[in-house]
Structure formats: C-alpha cells, structure tokens
Amino acid sequence: MKRNGSRGCVTRKTRFGSRERDWLKGDAQRGCVCLYGGTVDPQPPASGPQASSTLQADLRLVLCSTTTTVEELCAQREVEGLYLQLHGDLLRRLDPSERPLHMVYDYLAAIGYQDPLRVQREAANSDLSCMIRFYSECPMNADQQERTLLTGVFSVRKGKTQLHKWAERQVLLCGTCLIVASVKDSLTGKMHILPLVGGKVEEVKRRQHCLMFSSAGPQAQTYFVNFDTLADYQRWHRQASKVVSQTISLVDLSCYSLEEVPEYLFYSQDLTHLNLRHNFMSLQGPGGLLNLPRFSQLKSLNLSHNRLGVFPESVCEILTLTELNLSCNGMNTVPAQIGNLQSLQTLSLDGNQLSFLPEELGGLAQLSSLGLSFNNFPHIPGVLDRLSGMDRLAMAGNRVETLELGILARMSHLKNIDLRLNGLRWVKSEALEAVKQVTQLDLRDNHLATLDLSSICSLETLHCQRNQLRALTLSGFTLRTLHASSNRLTTVNIYPVPNQLTQMDLSRNLLEYLPDWVCDSRKVEVLDVTHNFLSELPARLLSSLSLRKLLAGNNRLQRLPDLLDHVPLEVLDLQHNKLGELPESLFYKALNLKYLNVSANALEIIPPSSQSEESLSTLQELYLTGNKLNENCAALLVGHQNLRVLHMAYNQLLSFPASKLSKLELLEELNLSGNKLKTIPSTVSSCKRLHTLIAHSNHISVFPEILNLPEIKLVDLSCNELTEILLPDSLMATLHELDLTGNSSLLLEHKTLNLFSHITTLKLDQKPAMMAGDSLGSSTLWNHGYSEMSGQRNKLCVSVLAVDRFGDSVEAAYGVFDGDRNEEVPRLLQCTMGDVLSEELLHSSVDSVYMSNTFLTSHRKLGMAGQKLGASALLCYIHHEPSELGSYFSLTVANVGSCQAVLCRDGQPLPLSKVFSLEQSTEEMDRVKLSKAIITEDNKVSGVTCCSRLLGCSYLSPWVLPKPWVRTEPLCSQDDFLILGNRALFERVSYQEAVCTVQAVRDPRAAAKKLCTLAQSYGCRDNVGAVVVSLHIGEDSCTCETPHGNTGTEPRGPPPTPLPVTAPPGEPATPSSSSGIASEFNSETSASEVGSEAGSTASDEHPSGPTARPERRCSLHPAATLFLFQRQPSCATFSSNQSDNGLDSDDEAPLEGVISNGSKLEVEVDIHCCAFQIRSGPAASPKDHNLDKTRSDYPNGKMRRQNSVVVSATNGCLLAVCGREISDLKKSPSTCSLFGKKLSNGSVVAPEDSHNLIEVAVEAPKKKSGYFTAPAQQDPEDQLVVPPSLEQDVREQLRGQSPMVPGPPPPFTPPSIRDPVWDHPPAPMLPQRDLAPNPIPALQQEVYDTAL
Questions:
Q1: 713 and 692 in contact (C-beta within 8 Å)?
Q2: Is the pLDDT of residue 983 over 90?
Q3: Are 1090 and 1191 in contact (CB under 8 A)?
Q4: Three-state secondary structure call for residue 737
Q5: β strands within 242-288, DSSP E
Q6: Average pLDDT, stretch 219-244?
Q7: Can you tell me the mean pLDDT for 466-491?
C-alpha cells in the first residue's frame, strides 16, 4: 500500500478498511477508480441493467484523487499504461499526464450530476463501467485480430503442378494480400506477395483442411496452404473470401482502436481505398500516419474521428489521393501543403474548429465537393471563388448570418449549397446579376424573415423549412421541388408559373387561400397544405390531371368541389376540417384513389362507390373516425371490395350490417370503437385476412366469432359489456394480444384461462383489493387508465408505469417510456424507475435533485442495453409539499426526449414538459452544435435520433444527455386530469383536442383508449401510448400521510429505525397493502448489488439523525395505532396455533417446499431485502382470513417494487414472499398462471385474488441456507448499533415486551445505520430478548456508498 498525500493512490482487491474510508471522507476530490485487467473482455459477460455489477476476477479498486495522473497510477501498479473505454466502444491509451478520476468526475458532471459528494459515490459504482472503464492492459478482441491480421506456420505449396513440394512457411493474410515467407519460422528475406482482390479461394478436396489461393489476371499465381486444424481453416477461408469478393482494393480498419496500421499492410501495394475511421491514429511508429505515403496507389483515405487535433501534413504527400476525409478531428487550421493534392476531388473537413482556409486550397482545380459543415466560418471563404470545378459546397452548422448572392454568382460551377443551421438572417442581392448555375439550395433551420431568390433563375430544389418567413419569392423557370413548411407564409410568389414543379410542401403556415399559379402548374404530383387556414380548395386543383397526392387536413374546409372528370388522385387526406359531405362523384371519378382520410369532420353520409352495382373502386384504406355516420353508411362500403383498412370509430353506429361485412373479404384491420354496437356480426368470420379487430368502448355483450380466423393477431374488446366467452376447442397460434379489460361482468373459467395461455399479451381486469382504512385513501383522490398500441412494425416499444399508491403514503407515480424502435430499454425503465425514485426520495426533498438523480441513476442502471439503445422518458410524481403540514398536493414532472405531460386546468391544457427535439428546442440545437455533433439533413444527431436528451444511447454522449427537465406545479381544485403521452400521440392529437377528448369521456381507461385510437385514425403508424389520470383534489381533500414512524421534524429523509413488535394476543395481525417501510441488505449481498440497487444510506442532502417527517393526519383519517415489523434478512419462522397446513388427509402428498410440523407451517422462501407493516385490529374469523388476499406495494399499478414483501393471512397462517422471489416465480411455467400473463411491453397482469399464496410458496425455489425454523446465527455485520448513552434507556423500553414468535429471535439491523459497502469493525451488540413497539433513536453514521 502506498500513500503520497492527495496525489497518492491505494489499491485493494475489492473492499476498503476504516483507514481508506476515513481518507475518502476527508475530501470530495478523492475517490475510487475501478481498474480492470487486460484479460477481461471489453464487454461484461451478461446483458441487462445488472450485468456490470458482477465483480470481475481481476478488478482492482484504486483510491486516488482528482490530481492523480496516469503516470502515478502506472508507477504504483507497475504497468506500462492505462486504457480508457467509453460506452463499451473504443479503447484509447491515456497520456501520462491525464487524470483518470478527474475524467470520471467530469463525465458525471457533464451528464447532469451536480453535488460533489454524489459524484464521489457514483464514481465508485461499478455499474458505471458500462459507460466509462479503465484497463491496465489493452484487451484484445479475437474478431478484431482476425479482420486485421492472420498469421501462422503452415504447409505451403506454390503452383498447381505436382513438381512443387510442400514446405513449412510463415503465412500471413493482411489487407488485400497473402504473404508467404521464403524462410521457415521467419519473416526475413524475400516475401512472396499474392494479391487476392478479384482472385479465388477454393477448398482442396483431396487434402484435409487445405485451401487454394489464386490471384486475378492472365498471369495468376497459385498457392496451396494446408492448415493444422479445422478452426484455422474456417477462419482463413472466411476472411480470404471477403477479400476476393471485393471489386476494388479496399481495406476497412474502422473502429478498431488502432494507433497505427499493421506493418504488413504495406505489402498490399495494390491498395486504393483505406478506411481508418474511428481510431486513435498517431503520427509516429512503423504504421503511423507518417508512413502512409508508402501506399503508392492510394486514392481514398478516411481518417475521420481520430482525435488528431492537427492536420497530418504527411497526408499531403500522397499525391494519388482523390478523396480525403478528415472530419471530426478538432483541427484548427489547414496547412498550405494541401495544394499538393492536385488530384483531389472530394475533401471533407466537417466537425472541426476551422474558421479560415489557406489560399493554396484554391489551386485544387479538380476539387468538386467540399465539406465544411459544423465549423466556425463566419462567412463563405473567398478562396472558394477560385475553385472552378467545385459543384457542391456543404457549410451547415457554421456562423454565416448573411448570404451574398453575388458570391454565389462568382462560383461558376457551384450547383448545390447547404447552409442549414447557420443562424442566417439576410439573403442579399446587391446587383441584378443572375445566379445561373445554382440548382439546389438548403436554408433550413435559420432565422430568415423574408426570402427573395428570384435572381437564382436555375433553381430546381429549395429547402427553407423552420424559418420565420412571411414572404417568399422565387423564379419558376426550372423549379421542381419546394419545401417551405413551418413558417409564417400567407402567400408564395413564383414567376413565371412553375411548369416543372412536381412536389410542394407548404404545411404549417398561415395560408388562407392557394395562389392561382398552383392550379396553373401542369406537373404538380404532391401537394401538402396541412395545418393552414384554408376555407376552400379550387375546383381546378381537384380536377388536375397530374395531382396524385393531396394533403389538406387541419384546415377550415366546409365543402369540396365536384369532380368534373376522371382524375389520377391516389391519396387524399382531409381530416380535421368542417366537411358535412363529400362530392357525390368522388369514388367513381377518382378510380385510382387508394387512401382516403376524412376523420374528425362532420360527415353524416358517405358517397356511393359507383353509379351502378358494379364497382371499379381500388380504395384500400378508409378512415372515417370522429364523424356522425350511422349504420346506413356501412351499407355503402360494399363496393370497396379491395378495402384492407377500415376505421369507423367514434361515430353513431348502432349495428353493422352482417351481409355487408361478409363482402369485405380482403379486410385486414377493422376499428369500430366508440360506437353503440351491441354485437359484431358473425359474418366477420368471412374476413379470412383479418388480423386486427378493435372494438372497445361499445355495448358488446357477445364475444365475436373471430378466434378461428387464420391470421388474427390482435383483438381489443375492452370497455364493453361482455359476460362470457364461447371459445373453440383450440385457438390460432397467431393471436398474440387480447384485451378484455373494462368488462365488469366478465367471468373467465380456468379452462378459458388455460386456452389463453399461449397469448403473449393478455389484459384482464384486476379485481379491487381495498383494505380497511384505504377507502378514503389515494383511490378517492386520483385514478388512472392507460393504453398502448403497436404500430405497423407489430412490436410494442412503449411502456407505461402507473402507480396510484406510491410507497407508503398518499402519493402516486406515473410514467411513459418510448423506445422508438427498441422495446428493451422501455421495459427496463418501467421495471426500475419506480424503485429508483423511492430510493432518491430518501436522500433529498428537493424536487429538482431527486428527480434528476432518478433519471441519472436509471440511465446508469440500463447497463449494456443503454450503450447503443435509448428511450424518451416521462415521470410524474404526485406528492405533498413537505414544507407545510396543511399543504395540498403538488405534481413534479421530469422528462427527457419527446414524451409529454399535459394538465387540464379550468378546461384548458397546461403543458408541463419540455420536448427535447432539435427541431423544437433552440437551446438544445445550439448546445449540440457547440459540441461539434454532426446533424444530418433529417435533423438527427449523427443520423440516429432527433432527441438531444434520452435515457440510454450513452455512445452519443456528450451530444445526447440523460439530464431531465424538471417542473413542479401545485395542484388545485380546478385541475381535472393529467394526460401523459409519447411523441406519436401528440404529433397527431393537439393539446386542446386531447383535453376535449378526455372531458367527453371522463372514464380514464376509455379516455386513454380513445386518444390512442384517434392518433391511429389520424395516420399514426408508430407505437402510441397514453395515460390519463383523473384528479379529484378539492379544498376538502385528505392531506394525511401514512405514518413512517415516530414524530420528527425532517420533512423527507431516511426512515426511522423500526423494531419487531407483536400484536395483542388473540388478535391476528392484518397486513397492510403497503410494504417497504425500510429496506435492509443481506450480509452476504455483494457490494456491487448494494451500490446498484440500494444506493447510499447517507447523503449531504439530509442531516444525520433518527428524525423522520412527521405523521400528517386530517379530520377524515384520525391517527391509528401502528406497529412496525422488521425482518432479519436470513431465516425465520412464521407460525400460528390456528394454521392449517392445507392437507386434509394422510393420503395427500406433502407439498414441496412446505413442511408440516404440528400446528406450525414452515415455508421455504427467500425474504432478504424485505420490510412490511402490520396494523392491529379486531380478531378476524377464519372466513375473514380466507377473504384476505395477496397484495403488493402498488395495488392499482403495473409494477412491483423489488424490496417488498407480499403478505397474506391465509387460513390463519402468516406467509411472506419476497417481491424479488415473486418475479422469479412469474418466470416459471408452473406459476405463470398464478400471476397473470406477461405483457408484450414487460407489464404483468395482476393476479386473481382467489389464488392462495400457499400455491405460490409451493413453487418457491429452495435455498441452501435452510428453512425458516433454523436458528439464526448473529453476524457481526448485522447487529443493532446503539449509542452507549442510550443503551440503558433502550434496555428498559424492551423489558416488558413479549416476542412475536417462539424461539430465539433473529438479529436485527437498522437500515439507517447499516454500512453496506465498507468493512466495519464489530459494533456493540444489543441483546434482543424483548421487543418494544416504539422505534429507538439511532445515531446515523455518514457512509461512503459504492458498489465495489
């Protein structure tokens, strides 16, 4: 062990002693670095949020300070160097002067941690290794070695004739060549080079494990290589096959953490394309950048993302280069030697720190494409005027505020200009000089108020979205494509008429009419004018012979003009208008119409499909949701026999004609929700291709005959009046989702449930489990409903967290998690975020602190899954303001990404969240640009995501961060409900429409269903999720809280120290529905589990001491006697004189895991990490005991807390099963039916209350630690620590109490004083001979928490 003051470092295997802990506590700038050996694979062995918590065999913990350098650490560890790995990706050798702990602290501060002590704890958590990790040696990846260099000594024969003999030679496969040494076991002397590009590699069947390598061309050479093992043979064959299949001589060494290229690569003199992107190339060394000119035929070189810092001048000596990419290297200047590259055609310098270019660059006569995006140029460099051959200039993301069109006129060959994201404010034309050569101009995401480009007479494509344009003037001579959405345009002036125009997007502007030239244009095929103020469409527009796609939704149209002739229209979107009818001739004049959306109008009838009985309609998708259609309109759909998708939700249908439905044989998706249907016609069985039937929120009482359909996948009949289900003998294996919630009279037999066992997502009602004393609890203040619907990908990537009773007080938590295209991260967040919030509430009462830390900790817990995948997250927490005893409720909202929360106050929407999208947040766009991220043309960071803040996607740090937006809003009696939704919901449904929708429905579940149904009917093709929380908070609302212990003054902090108590004799304990009063850790639990699951038990954010926030009671809920029961995390016995072991006669075999011992019932289960409450009450009869069912922490929610115990008094026997054990039981095929079906998004349907918990205990896995009756051995680390000054008082308080269970009681450990990480000397023990009902004050120790 070595110490050098603040600059010293200490190494231990896994744990630290008291001296090390004292040293750490002395300064927040001290900490611990987890140092892995080179034998560890760069990735942890398992996936998931806890994969990295397993301690590796060669992990070393090094105590150091933020000033400790790599050189000092290497000297102490006697290693040559240290390597840094970020997000499980590349490995970089650290410079001797770099400071590892300082790097970790900077990383944590960058993602959002602010408190120094919290940063110190997080830095020592081994879970952090999935984001930042240090190695003492460079781990080698077998696949990387195979792709860069293969070598070995094998039997080799040259030529195809038998005259040549076999000889042992050193053989290499590197780059594009096979290299054979002329001397055995040596690489000296002459080397035989065989180019393989375009050649052949074939198996030699006459010899085992033999390959024939042949070069291309008329003078091809051949080598036979005989390998020793099958593994070598397969490895060489696989790699050589890739080389010979190439059409060009290309070597791809990207993302290999290389500092130099393999030396043998220089034998590949035919190499023309070399990709070294995402490495750490150095100048020096045999394979460094200084030696790259040795490639005499090299044409393309990619050195992007190499942290070069300076332009490598040696590259300018490769005179054959035609393409050079040096993007994202932090370069400040370009050397004058760039002028040597006279053959250069493409130069990419994006993502650097350049602000000027050398004059020598103007001499590159052949340069045609120049990339200068995301640099610091204040204007277009003047040297570009001399580049006579340049036709493409990319300068997005710079600082150009003024564009002089005269400069463009002087660039005689320039055709394509990209000036996105520059902050442009003016486009000036000093003279009448025409700009004749520019054909494509991109001005998106700037600050332009007016734009006059009439002097660019050859303009073909213009992008000017998301500016502030009020006036737009263009030349129409050659204009083909115009994109001008999201501006403030009232008109667009184009002269002359753009007869070449084919596509125009004017959506989200202020247009009240369409200009006349739109109708005069002869070739317009696609026109988007959605979200304007149009009151009519010109008749000539609909009669256009070129228009194929017309999007005119979200306007003020009251009628459409009649079609005078046959038109080629294929797509027509008229949703969200005021249409009362459609043109009578619509369907038989627009015979090519395949898509029609007229949702959210006032239609009472639809036009006929034809004028005769024979219909020529080709309509495939028809959306009629949100109109006033009745059953008579359904009869008019018969003529559309090609119909695949039909949405008629929220109309006035009383029935659907059976004979008409049978004619729609090609129907695949049918949505009839929100009508007044009492039945679905039996003729639905004629729709053999039907895979989706959604008919929620009707009056259906008979289950439709759809389960025999061969392609049925999804059936939603929630919120109906079903009473029974008549099932066939077998179900189709294709059915993967069935929603039957909201059918209060539906009773399912066990036979039916068994038949449904193969369904991936089975949603059933959870029977209410209301306890005595809870009738006026949180359920009277709020209740919720939620809905999740998958999109076209048939993969649900949205998860919902909904907990009406959060923790042990009148609080609630709700969340929405959207993974876009991945389902893993939303599931992980759904399962862990509630627990993380519970833990963070113990450490801080400041909303911005505990919410931010909840998101940051959840980000860390994603582990390897969060390296490449991410999700938007929204979390809402309803709670009391702890500062005022008589306060009302407050709502704290935190979010990252694009999930949003909207509160309805006084009937109006009040947005509470912030959308972290590059298109909608100027601050985030500026931050991402400042960090030199590459933003692609679709406004995505590195082409991956449009969100600048997500949980996960850590490999995009520091551009994409997990730090949330936090806002707290006090709730009042004017607050009616809360709406939570993902991006897909609010893209299609406005805030105002969402509020009006919920107001009209009121039932939260039905309202959430309607929101998702509307989004899909409005054209949403992605996953959509919604949560509706109905609020009933008035001036007389209850403000009491479930007690946490003795009275105190601390508003929120660690729970008090509870002690086991007994209920009065003759009064069986009745468990409450709430558990998790305090959590404790098994002495055998690894420190990494402690760090990753429990967090710290002490923080600077709350003072040490035994106090807890006071119990708050209102007049509606007088205080009652409370008893706390705390289990030791080892073995124990639950017994009762009234217990029944469940065996009626001796002929029944005993249950596995349940031991009968007289009147005592012993159940073998694991109860570590558990705590629960017991309330006293009157003696209950055996009948009452049978009615008491299993409950969880979240009786109305979807998620169970891990540190919980589900308690049930069944047949007079008290059973306890750990929540973690329950999660294991749910995975067992024999017990999955007890706990309900697992939802496709990770949710679990609540178990039926009729199931006896003994059935669960039967399936509990056995533990080697013994049964509950085994006497508990006291562990020195699991003792109650009491200050000596209080020991006598405690003994006196404990003396009059009787033990709860016979036998020696287990030792007890207060969670608030337990140090879960560092080794302690044995503490003074307090004999637990007597038990007291009052918790004793305990001295809280300051603990340095980590997961080591």
A1: yes
A2: yes
A3: no
A4: strand
A5: 250-252, 273-275
A6: 92
A7: 96
Report the C-alpha gap between 930 and 1199 in whole angstroms. Answer: 40
Q: Which pairing describes strands 60-65 and 10-12: parallel, antiparallel, or unpaired?
A: antiparallel
Kindly give, in sequence order, each residue whose CB lies less than 8 Å from that of residue 596, ignoring residues fewer than 6 positions away.
572, 573, 574, 619, 621, 622, 623
Distance CA 878, CA 814 (A): 9
Return the minimum-mean-pLDDT range out of 380-394, 447-461, 713-727, 752-766.
752-766
Is residue 785 helix, strand or coil? strand
Distance CA 685, CA 704 (A): 9
> Measured in whole angstroms, how far is the alpha carbon of residue 1278 from the centre of its chain?
39
Q: How far is CA 1079 from CA 835, 1085, 1099, in A?
A: 12, 13, 17
pLDDT digits (tens, 9 = 90+) for 244-262: 999 899 999 999 899 999 9
What are the structure tokens assigned to 769, written together? 């489990």
Residue 278 to residues 87, 254, 281, 325, 326: CA-CA distances in angstroms? 14, 6, 9, 12, 11
Cβ contact 704:727 at 8 Å: no
* Confidence band of 550 (pLDDT split at 50, 70, 90): very high
Q: Give the pLDDT band of residue 772 (cuts 50, 70, 90).
A: very low
User: What percentage of the chain reaches a pLDDT higher than 90?
Assistant: 54
Residues 6+ apart with CB under 8 A from 950: 870, 871, 872, 873, 896, 897, 916, 960, 962
| pLDDT band (50, 70, 90) for residue 1145 | very low
All residues at 6 or more sequence positions from 691 whose CB lies less than 8 Å from its CB, including other chains? 668, 669, 709, 711, 712, 713, 714, 734
pLDDT of residue 220: 84
Q: Residues 522, 525, 526, CA angle at the centre, nearest 5°?
A: 130
DSSP 161-222: STTSPPEEEEEEEETTEEEEESSTT---S-EEEEE-TT-EEEE-TTSTTEEEEE-SSTT--E
CB 1241 within 8 A of CB 799: yes
> Of 1045, 1046, 1049, which is closest to residue 1077 (Cα–Cα)?
1045
Per-residue pLDDT reduced to its tens digit, 885-932: 556 899 999 999 999 999 999 999 999 999 999 998 889 999 999 998
Q: Which helix (H) or strand (E) holds 958?
A: none
Break the chain down into helix, strand, coil percent, rounded to 5: 20, 20, 60
Residue 376: strand pairing partners = none
Strand partners, 784: 1029
Non-local (6+) Cβ contacts of 317 within 8 A are 293, 337, 340
Instruction: Identify the pLDDT of residue 727.
Output: 80
SS3 sequence of 395-449 = CCCCCCCEEEHHHHHHCCCCCEEECCCCCCCEEECCCCCCCCCCCEEECCCCCCC
Q: Which amino acid is at 688?
A: K
- What is the DSSP annotation of 838-874? HHHHTT---HHHHHHHHHHHHHHHTTTHHHH-EEEEE
Q: How confident is the model at residue 440 (pLDDT cuts 50, 70, 90)?
A: very high
Which two tokens mark 388?
């006579």
pLDDT at 26: 83
Please compute the mean of the pLDDT values over residues 1167-1175 and round it to a whole number.
32
- The pLDDT of residue 639 is above 60: yes
Q: How far apart are CA 1215 and CA 1227, in angstroms?
A: 21
Q: Give the pLDDT confidence of 344-369 residue by residue, as tens digits.
A: 999 999 999 999 999 999 999 999 99
| Region at 479 (left for phi over 0; alpha for psi -120 to 50; beta for the rest) | beta
Reported as type and span, the H/E element at residue 902 is: strand 900-905
Ordered alpha helix ranges (H), 10-126: 18-25, 70-77, 100-111, 116-123
The pLDDT of residue 756: 87
Region of residue 541 (left: phi > 0; alpha: psi -120 to 50; beta: else): alpha
Do residues 789 and 988 lie in contact, with contact meaning Cβ atoms separated by under 8 Å?
no
